[in-house]
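Chain A, query sequence.
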Amino acid sequence: MSLSKKMLRDINVNKTQFISIFLMALLGVFAFCGVCSEYYGLEQTTQDFYGETNLADGWVYNATITDEAVDEINNFSTDSEKQLVVKSVADFSNDPEITLHFLDDNKISKFYRTEGEDFNLSDDSGVWLDKRFADAQNLTVGDNISFEFNGIEIEKEIRGIGYSPEYVYEASPTSIIPDFKDMGFAYLSYDAFPSDIQYNALLVKFNQEPDDFKESLDDSVEYLSFTKQKDHVSVAQFNEEMAQHKMIGNVFPIVFILVTFLTLLTTMTRIIAHQRTQIGVLKAVGYKDRTIILHFMSYGFWLVLAGSVLGLILGPMIIPDLFYPTMTSRYSLPQWNPGFDISFVIVAAAMVLSSLLVSYLSAKNISKENPANTMRPKAPNISTSGILENSRFWNKLNFNLRWNYRDAKRNKFRALMAIVGVMGCVALLVSAFGMNDSMEHLESWEYDDIDHFESKLIINSGALASDVDDVAEDVNGSTIMEQAIEIKANGKEDTVMLLSLNETDLISQTDSDGNSIKLSSSDISLSKKIAESLGVGVGDTIKWHIVGSDDWVECKISAIHGEPLSQGIILSPEKLEDLGLNFTPTSIITSEEVNDDYDSIKSVSTLDEMRNAWDEMSESVMMMVSILIFFAVLLAIVVLYNLGILSFTEIEREIATLKVLGFKTRDLRKLLLTQNLVFTSIGFILGIPLGFYLMTLMMNAAGESIYYVPSLTLGNILLSGLITFIVSIVVNLLFSSKIKNLNMVEALKDVE
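Chain A, predicted structure.
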């Protein structure tokens, strides 16, 4: 019981250091479990959603899916389901585009109902509607809705509202952020189709590798395209989002965990060194070495245990709720729940067990000494003269620098911990500001350097070419063609975008550094990120086809361009037609602000609206930037304050001696400030490349759709330094009163 009281008394005397140990353990586990809970929540929720709705393993598309083709495919698949998928326009003032799915069953990629009736294959007068679209248009179960497609108009009653596993993410034709008022999907029975139905999609399930299935598919039937589950737009986009969050969750808590161990080790080493006499007395009165070691091991154990358990509880409760609201604007899931993984408990347990190990390493050496030696003060660390001290340069240094140099040599571990702690702080600040700089650079690159139009008019799919030409002439605009294409090279495949446009000043081409380049009408340019992904360059041959067409073309790459938001191919209409393909405009771009309505135009987007959509999309990244900055500053305060206390208590005797020799308080304060600033400077310099590396890791985890160029401005490097040095100086000033009120008799009595 007496040792327990002693532990509580020692913790109270050294409460600053032990509070910092508690906070470091809390923050490390809190950050790891919180961010990973957000990621695992997304992963577990989508996996449950995909499992419950039986998401397809692949999609086979053709102009017509025949029964004979289905029979062939069923020979090497476990299940299949035919669908007719068509684009329609719903009868609303804004002409929203609704993708209709006419089903011959509802067993693969099933409709997930949240309101109304379950999907009924025999109901030919009902429709099951996208919940996000229904909410945006204030539609409820029982309302009627009309769709027009291919010159056919149908009207159905809404029987159910819900979600689809194929539309967790849905790309908007006009914006990065989906506008659910302008787009959606609907599920209907094949009996609801007004004439003889011809299916154009086959959803398949199989028990083999997707590439093996595709090889069997190639050998068996003719088809237009095949999409693997991992390459499906919705699945791929959401997986990219989760991968980036996972990378962030795995990287930056390591800094806190490392600093926790260093803080604990230095604190326990100092406490044990200062309690040599007490340990000697305990040995003399009969306490065994094992009991004494366990006593000191308990110091860190209880605090790290409390911090780890609290972090394990609070992290998943707080951090996911910070991210989910920003993600719901882009993704559609029936539930958003934090997740749990056994790794949370493992990390917390590892923190606690490691604290025991660190405390044991601090206490084991003194247990080997006999009581008589233990009662004597520990001999001070001896600093031998080195090359610097024997050089002429040494005599030119002032007392301040020489004293701090020798103190650092005597206390190398404390110096190392100070540098590592500052490195961690700077690395988090640099990675946070770097992510912010990279996002701003990306936005400026896309909307300042590449896009120069004021308005973008999306053309209706059934518009006549003459009407499109009239609109383009009326708005003084230029037509462009944007289509999804499937591309192949070196045995690799990807689905990217094709951009075909005439020579215009409204859209510029740039290289990977953002510098303007000029493409001729005969050039075929591939974006740098896709070129790197496929392992190709200028002069190499690629094959591609427009999704929905079986006309494959083969061509050589004549240029590589940089594009942040749209990866794929750029070529002129003339070159497109030389390859045997038709130039079919999908949009009109113009430098004018367009307010008129045109029958052939589906919608109009302005560049400002696109920029605002980008800002909204990047909110989750900006949230992470804010969290990183907050934790980095908190880390700096805790580490530097703890080190200041540690440093001050270790050199109390030296400070008292200098005061006796006539040094003023301001001189002694300058002495400590110099040491702080030197360690901070070294940590700052070493932390910059580490922060840039962490930022690059997190940016590279963003997936294939966005081309991030890690960017870090000098201003933000200086801002990171300013924050770190301000914290260092403020922490140092907190010790002024300790120097002024130092009890010199007590500080010097150990010398007796």
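The chain is about 50% helix and 15% strand. The mean pLDDT is 83.
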